[in-house]
Design brief:
Layout lengths: L1 H6 L3 H4 L6 H21 L1 H23 L10 H27 L4 H10 L6 H6 L4 H7 L8 E2 L18 H4 L5 E2 L6 H11 L5 E3 L9 E3 L10 H7 L3 H7 L3 H6 L1 H5 L10
Antiparallel strand pairs: 1-2, 3-4
Helix pairs in contact: 3-4, 5-6, 5-12, 6-12
């Protein structure tokens, strides 16, 4: 689809300023040229900056998956919560790596297997993290919303492909809709918050008390970087089917098309 947009002579007129396909190409090319210039003028400083970025990425990954990378919690409940979160991160990392190695074999089966390994959260789990009890009761409910669209719903097809929006058969397919089976509302909101740079919070139904909204920032949730959004924002069937080096191009499609799904206003 991105290649078709590059070949479409009127792509510039179909998208707002700065959002056409060639704008993305020029931005990446400009960044590459800038990096090359920096490396030529001051190789040691450029290499030092790259090492710092790689080290920061490695430190962040270590905190998520290595128990010894963070201090033991002061309370038993806090330590159980810390260990549980690390265990989930380890399972996600191993499952993601296995998905790429598995290729396209049994995509839907593998995806379901990855989800069945996740434990269900309790109200106490969220209350211990500072979530109001009424909101915690909402977060543990099964998620039935629309999910996170990897290909933004506002994306338009180029005229040579008929124009108009992307057909729901594609955008709502398991390959482009992030909506894990059996996931709870709180887990889905946190996942959506991590991978969508424009998604910051949402509302809470009135029947769950007087607290009518939630904020990911106030809950201490963290946004993924660009690479994290590309990878963790991709549904498992897409990552599995892509496999190997092809995953880099296919899984990155969403990042090239847009950096967010545009479904939620910033809060």
């Amino acid at each position: 689809m991105f290649g078709a947009r590059l070949l479409n002579p009127i792509d510039l007129s179909l998208h707002p300023d700065g959002e056409a396909a060639w704008n993305d190409v020029l931005r990446v090319a400009g960044a590459g040229v800038g990096l090359a210039k920096d490396a030529a003028s001051d190789p040691s400083a450029t290499w030092s900056r790259l090492k710092t970025e790689l080290r920061d990425w490695g430190d962040d990954l270590a905190v998520k998956v290595l128990p010894e990378a963070t201090p033991v919690a002061e309370t038993f409940r806090g330590e159980m919560d810390r260990q549980f979160g690390i265990g989930l991160n380890q399972g996600e990392l191993l499952f993601d790596a296995g998905s790429v190695l598995a290729g396209g074999v049994g995509a839907k089966g593998l995806s379901g297997m990855g989800k069945s390994a996740r434990g269900l959260k309790t109200v106490e789990h969220y209350v211990a993290r500072g979530v109001p009890p009424s909101t915690a009761a909402y977060f543990v409910q099964p998620y039935t919303g629309m999910g996170h669209h990897y290909l933004p719903r506002r994306t338009r097809l180029p005229e040579l492909l008929g124009g108009g929006p992307i057909p729901p058969a594609i955008s709502d397919s398991p390959f482009f809709l992030l909506k894990p089976d059996g996931i709870q509302i709180g887990d889905m909101y946190e996942l959506h918050y991590r991978v969508d740079p424009s998604y910051y919070g949402g509302s809470v139904p009135q029947r769950f008390g007087n607290v009518r909204s939630w904020s990911g920032r106030k809950l201490g949730w963290e946004k993924e970087g660009a690479l994290g959004r590309v990878w963790y924002g991709a549904p498992e069937p897409l990552k599995i089917t892509a496999g190997g080096t092809l995953a880099t191009g296919v899984v990155g499609l969403g990042a090239w098309v847009d950096e967010h799904d545009g479904e939620e206003k910033r809060r």
